Amino acid sequence: MASCERYASHVNKAADENTPLVSRQRDGSIVFQHSPPTALPKGWGSRHTMTFLAFLGFINVYSMRVGLSVAMVAMVNSTSSSPSSFHSHTGNSSLVKSLLQHQSGEDAWILSSGDALEPDTNGTCPSPPGWGNSTSDKPGEFHWDEQTQGNILGAFFYGYMVSQIPGGWLATRFGGKKIFGLGVFCTAVLSLLTPLAARTSLYLLVALRVTCGLVQGITYPATHSMFGIWAPQYEKSYLVVLAYAGGDVGTVLSLAVSGVLCDSDMAGGWPSVFYLFGTLGVLWTICWMVFVHDSPASHPRISEVERTYIEGSIGKVTTPGSPPWGKIFSSSAVWGLATAQFASNWGLYVFLTCLPTYMKEILKFDIKTNGYLSAIPYACSWVVKMLAASAADFVRQRGFLSTKNTRKLFQTLGCLLPAGMVLLVGYVGCDHAAAVATLTLYMGFRGLVNGGFTVNHLDIAPKFSGILMAISNTFATIPGFVSPLLVGALTKQNQTRDQWQIVFYITASIFVVGASIFLLFGQGEVQPWGALDCAPVVVPESPSVNDVSDDPETDEQDKRLRDN
């Protein structure tokens, strides 16, 4: 039986990242050049089932997280929380096709036809003709100013930050399946209780949101821990990003559906948002606990070929082990990764929590249109994420770029391109179509980071990937509560484009700094303290596994490796 040292030697001997990693054989199968001689299993496998259910899980997670951002617009009586809204001139039907241009140095908006609108004394845009007017929204029942709203939205992230590292440790110790399932289930129950808490006490609502953050904080470390065991070496970008893309799909669904529900009379309007997504979360938990298992070795229905393929690609964990905390916290690769994730999350959370407010207060979209349009950028982000993940795996497999350079390329593009787009938002003026298009491109380009930092935890420390995700996500959660507070402070009683432009400048600067630090410190190879345990791999005797090479010498070497 092959020893641990022999297995490691076989893998490390061909560790050159710049050579092709896969080849197509005579029978059409694909095999890895530098891993134990196992064939790529065909068709749908247990790893795909786990990934798909994780994808559905993150749809639930983000639906429940984002629903409040849209519901907040309907919950709050805006006439008491902000200055009087700008009322557009409605006496000219040519507004539908007019191009709005700002007359520099004067306090007026000028139509291309030469007609002037009322002075824009509040620095906001006219209501978009034909798109829906926010002044027609039903009055909300809560009298919360912008700072209070920022505190409510940011409360989630206080709990979210605290539970990251405990969640990573629990997943490493007890398995990611139970921890992820527990996080989603508890979030669903809290979502169902949100309307009651809001109507009972502001402090109770804040406490509930903190608790919601606590239980959701364990979801990403738990899932990352599972992928460290389940994702084959050269499928991990695609599988991980596919699962996490559920966050974008959940955001799109939540923003679009929440706007419709808030505008309806179902269950009182905005409370139906929490009832719907909470119920779906409970139903998902049942499916997750039935069909998913912590590792290939513990799965009762996995095929022997798939199990061999996974464990032959990445090894397997024989004992949980104690995380090498000192080496982790002193690793420049870890902090380069954490900084990249901080920058990316700042760009995400600013728009995740504050975009609906910007759509209403500045661009003047009504609650239903607000939900639809706020969802468009996340739909674009989902498409780009999937393309970026596939492209990252492709360039690594074909040897075009090393893992390290692949991650740096996608991370840099995913930071600098959105930085340019967010600066443009403030310069498109009140051209509503251009504003929506720019925000869409912003979120789309940000999706490129999914070929960068998103899977870098698995690159540098697959054994402790859950722990690394917990550490970097703790750091990257800070924007979650700082950005709503910052936006609330800058726009309190002053919802103007100029104030929002300050937010956009700050966001662009953070993107640039995050990209620069990752370029300096990011790594792609497994760190000595982060490798999975070596384990013998038993290769099933089948033509698809053994008869894969045209080189007799290679066949003989593989045979000796299996026999020993």
Automatic annotation (TrEMBL):
PROSITE patterns: MFS. It holds the Pfam family MFS_1. Residues 542-564 are annotated as: Disordered. Its main location: membrane. It is found in: Basolateral cell membrane; Cytoplasmic vesicle, Secretory vesicle membrane; Cytoplasmic vesicle, Secretory vesicle, Synaptic vesicle membrane; Lysosome membrane. GO terms for cellular component: apical plasma membrane; basolateral plasma membrane; lysosomal membrane; synaptic vesicle membrane. Residues 49-526 form the Major facilitator superfamily (MFS) profile domain. It comes from the Eukaryota. GO terms for biological process: carboxylic acid transport; monoatomic anion transport. It is a multi-pass membrane protein. GO terms for molecular function: symporter activity. This is Sialin. It comes from Elysia crispata (lettuce slug).
